[in-house]
Amino acid sequence: MNKHVVLLPGDGIGKEVMESARLVLEAVAERNGHHFTFEEKLIGGAAIDEMGDPLPRETVEAAEKADAVLLGAVGGPSWDHLPGSGRPEQGLLGIRKQLGLFANLRPVKGFRQLLHASPLKKEVVEGSDLLIVRELTGGLYFGEPQERSEDGEGVVDTLSYSRKEIERIVEQGFESARKRRKQLTSVDKANVLESSRMWREIVEEKRADYPDVKVDHMLVDAAAMKLVTDPTYFDVVVTENMFGDILSDEASVLTGSLGLLPSASLREDGTGLYEPVHGSAPDIAGEDKANPLAMILSAAMMLKHSFHMEKEAEHVEKAVQEVLDAGYHTADLSVVNGTELGCTDLTRKVIEQI
Ligand code: NAI
Ligand code: MG
């Protein structure tokens, strides 16, 4: 199959882990007789430096035409002085919005040899395998108004959703649950927020279409607690934008490292943008220390969700598992016994397995 992939490395370790993903995809293509073409574009701080805009138009145009988009990470201390609207993060928020990427899927699975890398007790995290489905283009991050009052003494953010926006993310939650262990937990704050009460009603309406999926509702504060006290309770969690942002970072401690967590952001036609959950890690950027596995696993999600290459995606996941089984890891997982490698050498190990 021929596929065209736009690469947005971004800033810091984004550039390093993107190179790993590209090499892995080339190995996958070679092994399976596919042909992938890659086109690199600017986003975030790199785009500000070269073009004065965190999201240049040509980046959006190239992404629109691609079969899928891979993104590294954006941001870093060199751009921290910039005002809100001109910051690297606007590149990320902007491309999600402009491509209509409404569903963010974040799988969290404890790799067994990393169980003791989690700060949580082994007995608690063992067997956890969950998927957070986060709404990505609505809610507090986009609602208007979002402003200071003229006298500077007040401020407002707005949490707004349309029925359609809630329906499509709830459907994504049900569809994901159907492909997994068929248990959907809808997380809201229905005791306080009107938007959450509507969310709950819509989940109740939709459950009739998915009789095979078991559904429960949980308040976000209770869910935050249960994620670290009883994580194996969860299969698929569906929730609004900000709750999902916070819960998915919380869930990342189950695996022991941010450097292992991939994500997919999908639009209604099934194309998507794939990126690691971590940021640009300025503290280790340029030192060949970054863990490339989150980015590589994001590329595997791209193979599965956008290209329907299930077998190829499994090859990549299996290669990652085998490399970890053999004891190879980057510095962020130094609690694991075995051999510490840099980003480049760990990537090479994954490619050897493929
Ligand atoms: P971060 O995720 O970049 O780093 C947090 C800690 O985890 C650091 O100690 C870092 O070295 C480590 N880490 C992260 N990814 C790693 C990897 N693949 N391998 C090894 N270690 C890894 O988050 P932080 O420090 O809060 O933010 C740094 C910059 O990244 C900021 O400018 C922030 O705005 C941006 N950021 C961007 C995101 C994105 O592009 N999606 C997401 C989160 C933060
Ligand atoms: Mg976040």
What ligand species are in this complex? Answer: 1,4-dihydronicotinamide adenine dinucleotide, magnesium ion
Provide the β-strand percentage band. Answer: 15-25%
Unreliable spans = none
Please count the helical segments. 12
Compute the number of strand runs.
14
Helical amount among residues, as a percent range? 40-55%
The top-level CATH class of the largest domain is: Alpha Beta
For the sheet with most strands, the description reads: 10 strands, mixed
**How many domain regions?**
2
CATH fold descriptor of the largest domain: Isopropylmalate Dehydrogenase
EC number: 1.1.1.85
GO molecular function: 3-isopropylmalate dehydrogenase activity; magnesium ion binding; NAD binding
Pathway: Amino-acid biosynthesis; L-leucine biosynthesis; L-leucine from 3-methyl-2-oxobutanoate: step 3/4
Pfam families: Iso_dh (PF00180)
Write up what this structure looks like.
The radius of gyration is 20 Å and the shape is globular. By secondary structure, the protein is of the alpha/beta class. β8, α7 and β9 (214-219) form a beta-alpha-beta unit. Strands 2-1-3-12-11-4-5-10-8-9 form a ten-stranded mixed β-sheet, sandwiched between helices. A two-stranded antiparallel sheet has the order 6-7. Helix content is 40%, strand content 21%. The longest helix is centred in the N-terminal third of the chain and has 20 residues, at 13-32. It is built from twelve helices and 14 strands. The protein has two domains: 1-106 and 261-354, Isopropylmalate Dehydrogenase; 119-254, Isopropylmalate Dehydrogenase. The protein binds 1,4-dihydronicotinamide adenine dinucleotide and magnesium ion. The site of magnesium ion (MG) has 2 residues, from α9. Its main location: cytoplasm.
